[in-house]
Amino acid sequence: MAKVTTFEVGYCTHVGCMALRGAGFRVCKFPARAYLLEVGDKRWLWDTGYSYHFSEQTRNGVFRLYSAVTPVYFDPQEALVEQLRSQGLDAKDIDGLILSHFHGDHIAGLRDFDDLAYICSGEGWQKISHLRGVAALKCAFVPGLIPSDFESRVSFIESYDTFPLPAELAPFTQGYLLPESKGEIILVPLPGHAAGHIGAFIQTDEGWTLLASDAAWSPANYKELRGPSRLANFLMDDPKLYYQTLRNLNQLYKNGVSIKLCHEGDL
After folding, report:
1. Could you report the per-residue pLDDT of 15-69, keeping only the tens digit for each?
2. How many domains are there within the chain?
3. Is there a domain that residue 266 lies in?
4. Using the 8-state DSSP alphabet, how is residue 60 labeled?
5. Is residue 119 part of a domain?
6. What is d(CA 87, CA 219) in angstroms, rounded to the nearest whole number?
7. Which residues of 83-117 are buried (b: 16+ CB within 10 A; e: fewer)?
8. Which domain holds residue 178?
């Protein structure tokens, strides 16, 4: 069965109610999580968390607003590439890097892995790749974080074989089979939060786990169907789809499936 290892790669802060309606104005810490997925001798990374590239790219110009609105705390020793190295793994030991979506806190470390194959939603990339300046900022996309040869090394999940999901993962019925994962990693669209936002069902020794990325920011979002502040709607790609995804997570939770989030804060 697949193995999932969690890393915390820096964090940002924000008032709690932006992530969970009714949580008040207490400033909360939201870790940026990345994951190492292993199936046999194959390894993939899921997102990158923050890196020093983020501070470089948000130091000047319009993107200064990004780090001003969500202050970032990052120690260079927390970089994903450094944490992997401490476990005896180099970039050459990784078979690919899967991007859940293109927000800066998920792609900031791409340039630390500039020899890897990238995997993402083609629909998401098509919507986001041409954006610059204020238009990019509105989508929390920092173009300078994308390696110049990104398009020559990326594959899109829409090109992968579709794979039927077991009944226990309802209302999800099918996804995209990650090549060479032996049916133990299935990529699924989780629309609403961002263009091309995806998650992954991982079959582990403990059962199925969903890496839900930013489909929720707190377990209460999907357990209680209590969403974030309505102000957060302005930051979403599609609020209507976001809440449909949240309802799907609620049903999955009731089925007893484990759900992992990238930014579960101290709410």
Report:
1. 998 999 999 999 999 999 999 999 999 999 999 999 999 999 999 999 999 989 8
2. 1
3. no
4. S
5. yes
6. 29
7. bbeeeeeebeebbbbbbbbbbbbbbbbbbbbeebe
8. 3-261
